[in-house]
Amino acid sequence: MRVAILISGGGSNMATLIDDMADGYAQPVLVLSNVDSAGGLDKARARGVPTACVDHRGKSRGEFDQEVSQVITDHAPDVICLAGFMRILTADFIARHSPILNIHPSLLPKYKGLNTHARAIEAGEVEAGCTVHQVVADLDAGPILGQARVPILAGDTAQTLAERVLVQEHILYPRVLRHYVSGERNPLFLG
Ligand code: GRF
């Protein structure tokens, strides 16, 4: 199973996914970023995974997606994983390149979009977490493939909560991708 991973930043989830593929259950064939200075690109190169960068600046959403689509097609993945990828993909791209998985730092369907941890704390939630879901045209709305929960503790800031959730992301995403590649479709719930 050939896997392409799209990133925009540090790529800790991407690196964790690639490292978990070391037993050969899947092959990382591409790491693509829309940001050429993304730290994740160095992590991918250090792991010997082909990389590409398509800058989104100065392009329409359609032009950007078209360029990304060409690079994806050239690498022929069977599945795409979004991992800290901060661009919204067009419905055409999603239709053309599904299945696409994404990890989102909240317990979907709660807290779609950005600033999830600050919003959960502000709302007085007692728990938070992360969700791996299949990407559909509606943002953060596709079928849930897995979730992991963490408590929100007194005195938590968005940063302390994000750090606690990120630990669980690194456990959840590889588990869910391995589960998905094996053909399982029942969602995994951890913690
Ligand atoms: C993570 O919180 C992830 O949930 C979100 O982007 C953040 C950074 O991820 N999508 P990474 O370190 O770039 O994988």
The total strand number stands at 8
Strand-pairing-aware structural class? alpha/beta
Number of helices: 6
Span from first to last CA?
28 Å
Give the DSSP E fraction (strand runs of 2 or more residues): 15-25%
* Oligomeric state, counting identical vs distinct chains: single chain
Provide the helix percentage.
25-40%
Indicate the radius of gyration in whole angstroms: 16 Å
Write down the secondary-structure element order.
Answer: EHEHEHEHEHEEHE
Global outline = globular
Model regions low in confidence, pLDDT < 50 over at least 5 residues: none
Structure ligands: 5-O-phosphono-beta-D-ribofuranosylamine
The biggest sheet, with number of strands, parallel, antiparallel or mixed sense and barrel status, is:
8 strands, mixed
Give the strand order of the largest sheet, numbering strands 1, 2, ... along the chain.
Answer: 3-2-1-4-5-6-7-8
Overall pLDDT: 97
What would you note in describing this structure?
- The chain is α/β, with parallel strands linked by helices and 191 residues long.
- It has six helices and eight strands; from the N terminus they run E-H-E-H-E-H-E-H-E-H-E-E-H-E.
- An eight-stranded mixed β-sheet has the order 3-2-1-4-5-6-7-8, with helices on both faces.
- Helix 6 links the parallel strand 7 (144-151) and strand 8 (188-190).
- The chain is globular.
- The structure holds 5-O-phosphono-beta-D-ribofuranosylamine (GRF).
- The site of 5-O-phosphono-beta-D-ribofuranosylamine has 15 residues, from helix 1 and helix 6.
- 5-O-phosphono-beta-D-ribofuranosylamine is lined by residues 7, 9-14, 40, 83-84, 103, 105, 130, 166, 169.
